């Protein structure tokens, strides 16, 4: 198999398997990361390259190079051991993201600052090097240099990449693209049915869209039958009293036969 792959590469026939970091099993890395891996000098380099690939996966476009060149932007290693990169994003008009990463012992601290017009905001993420880079990082094999890329993808995108896009679009007055608020009502209700009631009350305060969906009578009927079937009337009454302490304007509907108003 490896021989066939080498032969195909030598004649320009080899086409790598499409893969995201979130799809990589242990011993595998996306081809884009494998190509960049040849430039590493340290564990911090390894993790920074993975962060760069994750930004590319979420649609960020590097400044200073063509993404098709399969190389890092010029000047990505800055003086003092820092890393500096700049990106734009097609979904965030006229915005520029500057990424500065600082190695601090066994941690790589990544600070991404997005500028759009007069608005500027930042997201910071601290990543443990040994959580994602193995001791075999210098062996020339990208597949064994990384570990747990699936977790890295989830943490990086959820805590840095997606929040940056969301904040930029909010600042520009553009509609949201992802998150609970953009899901259709039927999917939102299916998700909400998995939560407990205190979590639903907190969710209802996030935005008008989620507040509206939390008012659905079928949702509260589900909670009643899920949480109170076979429970005595006295326990139901105690629960209701505690619930009404938490939400002054929220009232539960269809409370096991009791007549209660829906929240406003």
From TrEMBL:
Residues 177-223 form the F-box domain. It comes from the Eukaryota. InterPro entries: F-box-like_dom_sf, F-box_dom, Fbxo7, PI31_Prot_N. It holds the Pfam family F-box-like. PROSITE patterns: FBOX (PS50181). GO terms for biological process: positive regulation of autophagy of mitochondrion. GO terms for molecular function: protein kinase binding. This is F-box domain-containing protein. It comes from Hemibagrus wyckioides.
């Amino acid at each position: 198999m490896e021989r066939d792959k080498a032969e195909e590469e030598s004649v320009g026939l080899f086409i790598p398997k499409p893969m995201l970091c979130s799809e990589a099993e242990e011993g595998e890395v996306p081809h884009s990361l494998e190509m960049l891996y040849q430039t590493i000098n340290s564990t911090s380099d390894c993790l920074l390259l993975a962060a760069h690939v994750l930004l590319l996966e979420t649609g960020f476009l590097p400044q200073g190079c063509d993404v098709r060149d399969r190389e890092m932007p010029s000047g990505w290693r800055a003086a003092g051991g820092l890393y500096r990169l700049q990106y734009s994003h097609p979904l965030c008009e006229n915005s520029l993201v500057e990424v500065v990463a600082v190695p601090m012992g066994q941690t790589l601290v990544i600070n991404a600052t997005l500028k759009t017009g007069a608005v500027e905001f930042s997201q910071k993420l601290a990543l443990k090097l040994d959580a994602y880079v193995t001791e075999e990082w210098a062996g020339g094999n990208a597949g064994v240099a990384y570990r747990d890329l699936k977790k890295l993808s989830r943490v990086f995108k959820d805590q840095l990449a997606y929040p940056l896009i969301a904040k930029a679009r909010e600042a520009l007055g553009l509609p949201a693209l992802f998150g609970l608020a953009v899901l259709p009502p039927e999917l939102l209700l299916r998700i909400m049915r998995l939560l407990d009631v205190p979590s639903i009350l907190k969710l209802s305060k996030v935005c008008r869209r989620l507040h509206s969906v939390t008012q659905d009578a079928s949702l509260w009927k589900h909670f009643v039958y899920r949480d109170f079937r076979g429970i005595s009337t006295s326990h139901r009454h105690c629960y209701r009293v505690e619930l009404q302490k938490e939400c002054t304007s929220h009232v539960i509907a269809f409370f096991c036969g009791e007549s209660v108003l829906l929240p406003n």
